[in-house]
Amino acid sequence: MTRGKQKIEAQKRNAEKNQKAKGSQIEARAVGLKVICPICKVQLANQNQLVDHYGSKHPKEKPPAESS
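== C2H2-type domain-containing protein ==
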């Protein structure tokens, strides 16, 4: 069992540890999604996901070339 200064410091550490993260998951998700499907406007993280998306959702279309 802790007393005095130790107890106060432990409470501060626990409060900092349990504090919610700043920002939202929606904002973080928007930053990570950089590639957009020109047909259905779905946002994807990278070119490989876009190629997979075209294979499953738009099989008759060719995926656009990688634009870097």
